[in-house]
Amino acid sequence: MACAGLSQRPAALLWGWLLLGCSWGPGPPGVGAAPRFSAAYVLDDAGGLGRRFDGIGAVSGGGATSRLLVNYQEPYRSQILDYLFKPNFGAALHILKVEIGGDGQSTDGTEPSHMHYEDDENYFRGYEWWLMKEAKKRNPQIKLIGLPWTFPAWIGKGENWPYDHPDVTVYYIVSWILGAKQYHDLDIDYIGIWNERAFNSKYIKLLRYTLDKHGLQQVRIIASDRLWEPISFVLLLDSELHGVVDVIGAHYPGTKTVLNAILTGKKLWSSEDYSTFNDEVGAGCWARILNQNYVNGKMTSTIAWNLVASYYEELPYGRCGLMTAQEPWSGHYKVEAPIWITAHTTQFTQPGWSYLQVDGHLKGGGSFVALTDGLGNLTIIIETMSHNHSRCIRPLLLPFSVSPQRATFYLKGSFYMVKTLQVWHSRLGFESAHTTLFQQLHPVKVWKGSFSLDLNVDEVYTLTTLKTGQKHIYPDPPPSQPFPSNYKDDFNIRNPPFSEAPNFADQTGVFEYFINTSDPGDHVFTLRQVVVQRPITWSSDADQTISIIGNFQWENFTVTCDIYMEQPRDGGVFVAGRVDNGGIYVRSTKGVFFWVFADGTYRVTGDLGGEEILMKGDSGVRAHAWHTLTLNIQGTSASGLLNGYPLWENVTITEPSNGWAAIGTRSFEFAQFDNFHVEAS
Ligand SMILES: *[C@@H]1O[C@H](CO)[C@@H](O)[C@H](O)[C@H]1NC(C)=O
Ligand SMILES: *[C@@H]1O[C@H](CO)[C@@H](O)[C@H](O)[C@H]1NC(C)=O
Ligand SMILES: *[C@@H]1O[C@H](CO)[C@@H](O)[C@H](O)[C@H]1NC(C)=O
Ligand SMILES: *[C@@H]1O[C@H](CO)[C@@H](O)[C@H](O)[C@H]1NC(C)=O
Ligand SMILES: *[C@@H]1O[C@H](CO)[C@@H](O)[C@H](O)[C@H]1NC(C)=O
After folding, report:
1. Does some domain include residue 283?
2. How many helices (H) and strands (E) does the chain have?
3. CA-based Rg of the chain, rounded to a whole angstrom?
4. Is 679 a catalytic residue?
5. Do 97 and 182 have their domain in common?
6. Taking CA atoms, which of 125, 292, 359, 434 is between 20 and 30 Å from 388?
7. pLDDT tens for each residue of 553-593
8. pLDDT tens for each residue of 197-227
9. Domain count, the chain
10. Which of 111, 128, 272, 512 is an active site residue?
11. Active-site annotation holds for 655
12. Ligand 1 contact, 497 CB (< 6 A)
């Protein structure tokens, strides 16, 4: 029916040979008739090109968003990485931005620092090194960015602030860049300042000076990963700072920039954006901002938070990744719609291409961008996202309307000779059943430099001279499964591939594999909490440390763990169940917490903060000895065992009714854990 509608139009209206009319989907009556809006757009490079395109990317971290990815079994883990990074495969990302772990909570967890303490240096912690290497393995051209959210305490010498001693912070950051090269052969392309916090001009200048001194001239500086101001204004006033900042990176700019930013003459990036639940509306958000960040705001790079939703879904901003991989225990993952929206741009452009100078607003609503490699290739990306199909989590999106429309493109200058364009198409519904993603259609024939396209709402088209596009699909991964209800870890691993134990998600503090070679035998391999001073925070870390694990739906539990306090005077450790919060909300976490303290007492509390005391008494437990804690929660009743003997019982629990299991410490202190076991329902 839709195709018939096309052929009924007067021939004079049809510029070029059009085989795209079949894309009409269900819509309001009359959609198949001639569109109300019809307009012509000229693509010409004769008068020069627009801004240089710097690529589309995503953030791993900020924080701990790739935590569960590393524990996937093969072949699933490699499949996920292929969907993200492999050229002409899936999302084919141009940029990977990683958190420089700083031991503090950075949204969905903490990431370990390469320097927990002043005299400490270790470039094998965490999973961001591994992820950067996996990305480079698949795409050697991928650009790498590092950015800190938090810093270990020693950087601030007692202050919750990284700029009082800029030389110390510069040393710490430059060490990370040098370590990336020395231990992993990774060249970092861009370095940021401090995520969504204040910048300091003296610090930025010293950073540039020190980078250059170490032969790192190629490392470019992004500032300030917050708003357009005040950095733009300061760059206009301070010519020395202007000389050292390469990119102005703004977060969640809502596709707009400000005059001062343009006046700086700097590259403008949306250096963090998206952050939206990865369903069809999230995909619409992503499609809209990928185009309109340039069309409205002259931004030449857009970077999604986050790369892959690999954290427990009930943590803040669950599933706000380009795809979902949050079940290493089952191998299940999902290639969500934003992956294929990304492919519309990434598979047909590269950093170093240029935008064409053209107003990319479509007359009937929506937008287009056109890019060229300067060697005759042309890629046009069109999006017609409607308002309620493309809302991002922030900022507020003012109302607008988008209508079905006809767009006629005139190719001029070096594109006049283009004869055919490859066509890739997506149409977003509100359910995946009504959605088509990244389908290749018949090429469009360009006749005398012109072709027309009938656009419906909520569509994305890529028209390109490149024939390299591919939509790869692996066989379905295993089905989704809940976290195993009977789970043990004795931490007895000799050459751990990662510094953290599988599935434990640190929310304050850092829990690492530890080897005590002088232990007589039972506890040589343990898990140790290693952050001993409150870090320079980015959000409200708790005053206690905590690592969560398991299934948020769990109600009835037995959690058992061997514990070892290392702090003799005021040390304390806990095991917990029904833990109901984490991430940036970790301070207000509730649950059932069974604590023992080095002064020989115990407590049962309803919160991590320890204010809601349900039971207390003497335990006889001391530091520097191993003990076994068991917490049992059934319905509204909880009981606790010490070394297998009942210590307390019949404590009434009304809420929370469910949550994760957890281990942790009373303060920022060393403590060890061994033989963790949870059985739950
Ligand atoms: C387009 O890109 C391809 C692949 O990079 C290249 O081989 C070709 O020379 C470019 N130019 C044209 C006009 O195809
Ligand atoms: C979005 O708008 C369309 C058209 O007005 C409407 O049919 C649809 O129900 C809306 N969907 C949502 C989720 O609001
Ligand atoms: C290592 O084990 C020995 C022997 O049990 C013990 O004395 C020492 O405190 C342990 N060290 C740590 C850091 O746990
Ligand atoms: C938890 O235990 C209570 C009391 O024994 C029971 O009523 C409830 O159904 C159990 N919940 C689950 C999910 O098994
Ligand atoms: C706990 O409750 C059970 C069942 O109500 C009861 O038999 C037992 O005596 C109670 N124990 C204590 C220490 O109160």
Report:
1. yes
2. 10, 35
3. 27
4. no
5. yes
6. 359
7. 999 999 999 999 999 999 999 999 999 999 999 999 999 99
8. 999 999 999 999 999 999 999 999 999 999 9
9. 3
10. 272
11. no
12. no
